[in-house]
Every structure is written in structure tokens, then in C-alpha cells.
From TrEMBL:
It comes from Macaca mulatta (Rhesus macaque). One of its GO terms (cellular component) is cytoplasm. Residues 87-110 are annotated as: Disordered. Residues 1-190 form the BAR domain. GO terms for molecular function: GTPase activator activity. It holds the Pfam family BAR. The keyword Amino-acid biosynthesis does not apply. This is SH3 domain-binding protein 1.
Length: 235
């Protein structure tokens, strides 16, 4: 938008007298809008390179990997707890069948013992997977913690480059305004009384405006009221 405004101004001031007050002001405004656009573009490129890209790697690569391990660990722990409950119940059933008169050689006791043994093997295997997944998850968390200060610095750097952007923009505006006011002040020294009076309408206190022009109502207000009376009474 700033560059588009600068281009429009550049096309417009060509139609004006380059030595006129308005022509000079428009040309200076065109140049400053172009400069502000370039400062903004540099800020956005720096922001993308130094802040957004590193943080996008964090959000798109590292954090999803951590969350994936966390989810896997939660599922494995849940499966492990379920399997331990099944193993505990099977062990109780095996003891009950033996206590109810089923001899060690009975078919039902042998089947139950085999089932308990199988569940124990599955439980041991699942326990190993839980420990492995927990180690991977903790390693991810530790790796993240070691870089946490670096990630915090990205947000600090964001504020730093924003501050630098605003300082550069403000400096450009202050310089341009000082030059514009100086040029405009020189152009105001005209022998024309009308021009002198017009220059005192704005930029002075209301009391000064009324006193110098000998008015009871400020000129801009009276002009607006007269326009409304003549053109706007049916609107």
C-alpha cells in the first residue's frame, strides 16, 4: 500500500508546477512514502528470516515429534495397565482352579498356566516398549529444554526488530517533516494578504484565528454550515 501510494503521488505531482508549494510537498511526500515502503519491506524480510522461519521449524518439526512420542507413550502405558490387569486376573483364576481340586496335571490348570505365562511374556515385552518410548520422550524434552532460551530469544528479537523498524520510520518522517515545514514556511512569506490570512486558519489557536480575522465563528465551521444550508437541507 505504501509503494502504491508513492506511485500514485509520483504520477500526480508531474501535473503540478514543481516550484509550487503543493508540488514540492507532494514530491517530498512521494519520496518519503517510497522510503517508508522500503523500510517496511526490509523489516518484513528480516522478520521472516530471523524469527518466523526458526519458530516455524519449532512448530512444524520439533513440537509435533515431542507430542507424537507423548501420545505413543500414553497409549503404551494404557495398554500396559490393561495387560497387567488381565495378567492379575488370570493369575487369580489359575490359583482358584488349582484350589478347587484341579490337579497340577489337569487340562484346565495347564491351559490356564500357559495363558498366564503368555500374558507374562506380553507384559514384559510391553513394559520394555514403554521404557523405550519413555526414554525417547524424555530425550526429546531434554533436547527442547536445552534450546528453550534460544527460542525465547526469538521473541525478544521480534520486539527488537519492530523497535528498529519504528525508529527508522519515525526518523525518516521527522526528517521529511522538518524539510517540508521549512520549505512551506518560506513559501508562506507572500505579500498577498489573502494568502497570509489563509495560512492563519490552521496551526493557530481558535482565539488567535478569530482575533486576526475579526470573526465570531471560525472560518472552516462557517464554511461547512453554509454548505449544509445550501446543498444538504434535503438530504
Amino acid at each position: 500500500p505504501l509503494m502504491a501510494l508513492s506511485t500514485t503521488m509520483a504520477e500526480s505531482f508531474k501535473e503540478l508546477d514543481p516550484d509550487s508549494s503543493m508540488g514540492k510537498a507532494l514530491e517530498m511526500s512521494c519520496a518519503i512514502q517510497n522510503q517508508l515502503a522500503r523500510i517496511l519491506a526490509e523489516f518484513e524480510m528480516t522478520l521472516e528470516r530471523d524469527v518466523l522461519q526458526p519458530l516455524s521449524r519449532l512448530s512444524e518439526e520439533e513440537l509435533p515429534a515431542i507430542l507424537k512420542h507423548k501420545k505413543s507413550l500414553q497409549k503404551l502405558v494404557s495398554d500396559w495397565n490393561t495387560l497387567k490387569s488381565r495378567l492379575s486376573q488370570a493369575t487369580k483364576n489359575s490359583g482358584s482352579s488349582q484350589g478347587l481340586g484341579g490337579g497340577p496335571g489337569s487340562h484346565s490348570h495347564t491351559t490356564m498356566a500357559n495363558k498366564v505365562e503368555t500374558l507374562k511374556e506380553e507384559e514384559e515385552e510391553l513394559k520394555r516398549k514403554v521404557e523405550q518410548c519413555r526414554d525417547e520422550y524424555l530425550a526429546d524434552l531434554y533436547h527442547f529444554v536445552t534450546k528453550e532460551d534460544s527460542y525465547a530469544n526469538y521473541f525478544i528479537h521480534l520486539l527488537e526488530i519492530q523497535a528498529d523498524y519504528h525508529r527508522r520510520s519515525l526518523s525518516s518522517l521527522d526528517t521529511a517533516l522538518a524539510e517540508l515545514r521549512e520549505n512551506h514556511g518560506q513559501a508562506d512569506h507572500s505579500p498577498s494578504m489573502a494568502a497570509t490570512h489563509f495560512s492563519r486558519v490552521y496551526g493557530v489557536s481558535l482565539a488567535t484565528h478569530l482575533h486576526e480575522l475579526g470573526r465570531e465563528i471560525a472560518l472552516p465551521i462557517e464554511a461547512c454550515v453554509m454548505m449544509l444550508l445550501s446543498e444538504g437541507m434535503k438530504e
